[in-house]
């Protein structure tokens, strides 16, 4: 960076913009980042709404010219929270302008886009420019702690992994049509939206890569009522119906290679029809010496089973991951005091900024984001090919 | 015993009679008792109903003459399942006739009765006659395992104990009057009925005795609708109301002495107003090195917390108590296959008969039953004395 | 039946023989079967061990001649608990002799055998002979209650089903070779042993049939230490290793047809590598109006989610299935008192005998057992064909 | 307020100062407060440490002169986070200077102090000055939702309440002496520190007041190792021991009056010896029509039991309190995304500021804080009087 502070431009100001803003605002209050950070500019398409977001989220200025913002010599960091279709253009422009880039997941809407972005990141890396993908759930302390347990060999050889991302907002077949169900707008359905998280978590925690997949995509409800005015979750339903063109649910089995899970089999599911589950990203890992269970709806907890304990004393142990010994937690509140969803973004900002300061490459890299994209692509290809096993 | 087999007379054939019958019928099928047992005679007041029970529960004969049955030279064991008010007379007659006696809890309806029974048991013991009180929850494998953990020092010095027995069948204030709410018939309310179990469990698991208590008894609903025909849980409600003369709920704090819990404080509750809890006998024990949690509604599980585990790896461990290493469980099914309420009676029969065969005194003894009676009495005296601390 | 009582011959006296004996012994004590039942003869191959089982389980006589026993004119019912390879011969002989047959699952070791048995059962049915397959988990009260909820439409249209049978006795790669891992002896691995239960439960509870499957079979550890003396779970390990020739784990996705789950997708898993899970048969069903969750390790509980409840008041409800309103439970203990694994066999005996008395066909029929066999076969074929979707 | 913005002075910058700062910083980003707020000055005793806190928490200026700060004409709001012994002086000075006051709990270290503060608050109220006590757990959405359920009559007549505050940082008897265990410095032990929260929650949720109490205080470990340098949780233990002069644990039973819990009995416990429980504020309320359960260690969840549901369908329902229909939650993240401990302070700031803007008195008032003080005092008097029932 050119100065004693990092000036940040955030592109996009929807749900992810709110979450990232909270991260930029809060991280310096709880972590020693090694540098001052400045919430310099928020960028959006609509001047009025962008200005409203500026005020609400606490950015210094607002802009509707993303290219000017991300190439501004006064900007050091570009944080991309805009829709997936815009990632490729913004990220490459920012990287070429020498800005460090934090890009929301999924990295892009296609493998080709992700490849272009990864090439740009690799080129920029040579001159010390850092890039990272926003798989924020890696920064849930219970997940980071699970990774430590795996790395310390506490699970032994991992044989099976199960990663489900369970939501239910489509369970009602009369729920309205939205842009998220239109492939031309959303790119993909539950697979890319939430399945991507499940893939990244498994690879991150086990240190293995998905090598081949056999998958199925399903659209249970193919037509949904159109809202009288535009698409959206509120409004008056009209009698007309729109065509759902993305997957409602994705199911796939994968063979893993490398790390503690070499040769393991993983089962994956991403669905919006899991009635009663709101944000149920669940992860179960079974190894020769132990096992772990995680559920994002109880994100401060990790269940750990130590299969090397004496016979009769084994059981899943509910660890409340709020001890100072746990990743990230020394910075927050006393033991037993929970953190929430948004804290993962403070952790993300912390890790990203500290890597920039240290001159190291943060993780997940664009290469890792590209790999997830390739897995998604392989699942789609397998599903189109009658669930045939497909190499990633 | 006079022969190669133990012939059993069971007095009473209500709920407890059904449970004990299942114990006598099943124990020899799963445990090596060291002797044949014979379900010789069931005794009741009404000839027709007793004969029906004989057929249903599988006893060889039925009788309405309890005294003849319990003094019959062909009988070796008397199992008393009749109402508490009858315990003193039947038990003493049986003991004086040289029969081994298993007596349902509570031992008696008063301290004086329990003292007389205990004296009779002590006298009979001299000539090898065995006696035991039916606190069957000691024989829940998870409870027996909890006791092993305490005895092995895994909890360190126990500081606090919480034992609640939570039921809800009186939560509805328009629930009908029954004989159980009439002190002249039932002797006592929730304190004696279910509180006695909580007291025995705490003393059994910790090895300590309650020494002094401060207690409160409460009757929330003092009048309840009388049934048009007699008292009972079914039938048509009449417009008349009956007077509730027993406690609805009992609350007491105790100081413990001896064992691993010397100097500890115990908090106790017995209630029939714990809406949503059906048979919630819960036990929590906190020590310097560990803690346990138990709930009878999940009776195959014990939660154990090891406070000596490494920092960051501590958590309540859900142990499914179905391993062959666990008390009683090697006799039953493979690991992970649950047992139920009635199994505690098979365990009770097993322990009782094996003690008879071995010529040893089984536990809980009548002395222990008398002690529980004294605790109940002290709680009542404390409650009558404005919760003043009362020596047991 | 020829008389006022049903005389039973039980073939086989291992784990299932013990469980069925407990069912025959206990069912008449808690249910009105409408007829006397008599535990007439237990049949085994080894005279000494069969006699020991006779004494332990309480059968009147023991025999080593299965054919004589199952064709004995004094026998009314044949209960087949012997290994799967023997089912076809014993069942057909018994049916042809006009005996009612209860046959343990899986119905047979192959589709061809199951077809022959089903044909025999169909022929016998014409003359009033009843036959049933022992999928005992249908008789877990929580499962029977779940089926009632589905049938009452409380889940609406079922979209997704997940049925996992999770055990962990192979998680240790140094666990010894046993006959269960040898295809020539066991026929199949986790797929047939435990996966069959998952298939039957899904079809039973939803009323739908699996129509097509895409599956994967995996053997994680292909060689295991041979015991110095024979194969078995105890004994001294030798330095030699045996070849594992069955599946360690099976994974499959199915499309369902019919019932409340027409068009639904089911995901299935059967594994012996789920570290920490001992007998984890879990069932989750998601519908447009509600959902249920079940875990055999907490078999007295059903989680129910009512998606039609007011916004803000929805949540998975932990129903303790011990109320008199719940299937089978009025016969047992007061509310909140749990039952265990073996009770499912009392329920099975009850339903089977009551059907015989009523002159009705019990369920699951041999046809249903054959169907499960065909599903297992289709999974194997799919797995051999690169997980291609395969019609059942 | 004199202007279009509220300028805040915060006195104290320890644990509570960090939490309140996060509240002041975050509340305006998620809620429409109706006015701008300004984090104007943080006040501490040590200039260097106060300046460090200023930078870390984001206040504009730092000061060591609390009186100057709280009487500064430019200040509108005083937020008191300093130790309890200082509350009386600071609060009265601020109120007399016409500042709105938010005062951390407990309101004061004695009833006399609390009375003086309450008189000052009452006097100031006449001229529109607002005051509030910081019982932040009222602002846990699950607690606020529980209160709504009680107020809507969903629990019917409340009969029993159980409120436990369970921590374990003293479970190890060799844990060091700290100022919190010295009565001259801390004023009180677990009773005032955490028991106060339990009292306030019960009164808040039920709408009833504690009327009389019977209590016991206990110090299990009376001497603890002194740190070589000063008192504190870190450092080297010396061989000398200090005297513990506060209660380790407090137990009390109370009769409630008013609201939905008129005539109910409440049982309370506050302890630092509940091994394995870190921040276990648990609340259970049982009524004629329903019940609720809450545990702060799972603060996003409320268990609700509807006793008016059909027989067989009743069960504790795990409601994840993250729906837009739930109190405070529409402002945060999508359904199923958790919030944490610190969010209660944003809610506190929101409610406090909105009340100031609306010209209404916020709750809990100083009168309510005084009442909690009186309950604590009555428990201490009862404990000193052999647990005699004591009027509050």
Low-confidence stretches of chain A: 230-235
Biggest interface between protein chains, with counts per chain?
Answer: A-C, 40 and 40 residues
Please give the CATH class of the largest domain in chain A.
Alpha Beta
The CATH superfamily of the largest domain in chain A bears the name Dihydrodipicolinate Reductase, domain 2
**Mean of all residue-level pLDDT scores of chain A:** 95
Q: What separation lies between the terminal Cα atoms of chain A? A: 37 Å
Number of strands of chain A: 17
Annotated CATH architecture of the largest domain in chain A:
2-Layer Sandwich
**Largest sheet, strands/sense/barrel of chain A:** 9 strands, mixed
Number of helices of chain A: 10
Strand order of the largest sheet of chain A: 16-15-14-13-7-12-11-8-17
Helix content of chain A: 25-40%
What is the N-to-C order of secondary-structure elements of chain A (H for helix, E for strand)?
Answer: EHEHEHEHEHEHEHHEEEEEEEEEHHE
Shape of chain A: globular
What do we call the CATH topology of the largest domain in chain A?
Answer: Dihydrodipicolinate Reductase, domain 2
**Overall tally of structural domains of chain A:** 2
Estimated radius of gyration of chain A: 21 Å
């Amino acid at each position: 960076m050119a100065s004693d502070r990092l000036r940040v431009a955030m592109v996009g100001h929807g749900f992810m913009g709110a979450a990232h803003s909270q991260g930029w605002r809060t991280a310096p209050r709880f972590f020693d980042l090694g540098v001052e950070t400045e919430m310099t500019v928020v960028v959006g398409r609509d001047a009025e709404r962008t200005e409203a977001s500026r005020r609400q989220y606490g950015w210094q200025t607002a802009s509707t010219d993303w290219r000017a913002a991300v190439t501004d010599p006064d900007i050091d960091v570009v944080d991309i929270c805009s829709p997936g279709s815009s990632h490729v253009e913004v990220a490459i422009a920012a990287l070429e302008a020498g800005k460090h880039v934090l890009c929301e997941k999924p990295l892009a809407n296609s493998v080709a886009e992700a490849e272009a972005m990864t090439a740009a990141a690799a080129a920029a890396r040579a001159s010390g420019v850092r890039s990272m993908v926003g798989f924020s759930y890696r920064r849930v302390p219970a997940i980071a702690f699970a990774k430590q347990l795996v790395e310390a060999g506490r699970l032994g050889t991992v044989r099976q992994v199960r990663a489900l991302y369970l939501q239910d907002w489509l369970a009602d077949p009369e729920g309205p049509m939205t842009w998220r169900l239109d492939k031309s707008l959303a790119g993909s359905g539950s697979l890319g939206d939430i399945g991507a998280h499940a893939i990244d978590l498994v690879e991150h925690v086990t240190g293995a890569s998905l090598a081949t997949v056999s998958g199925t995509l399903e659209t249970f409800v193919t037509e949904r009522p159109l809202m009288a005015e535009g698409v959206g979750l509120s409004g008056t339903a009209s009698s007309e119906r729109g065509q759902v063109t993305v997957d409602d649910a994705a199911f796939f089995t994968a063979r893993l290679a490398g790390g503690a899970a070499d040769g393991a089999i993983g089962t994956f599911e991403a669905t919006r029809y899991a009635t009663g589950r709101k944000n149920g990203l669940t992860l179960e890992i079974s190894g020769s010496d132990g096992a772990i269970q995680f559920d994002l709806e109880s994100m401060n907890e990790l269940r750990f089973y130590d299969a090397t304990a004496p016979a009769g004393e084994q059981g899943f142990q509910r660890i409340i991951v709020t001890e100072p010994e746990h990743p990230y937690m020394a910075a927050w509140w006393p033991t037993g005091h929970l953190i929430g969803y948004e804290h993962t973004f403070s952790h993300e900002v912390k890790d990203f900024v500290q890597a920039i300061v240290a001159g190291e490459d943060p993780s997940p890299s664009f290469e890792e984001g590209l790999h997830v994209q390739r897995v998604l692509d392989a699942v789609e290809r397998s599903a189109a090919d009658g669930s045939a096993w497909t190499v990633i």
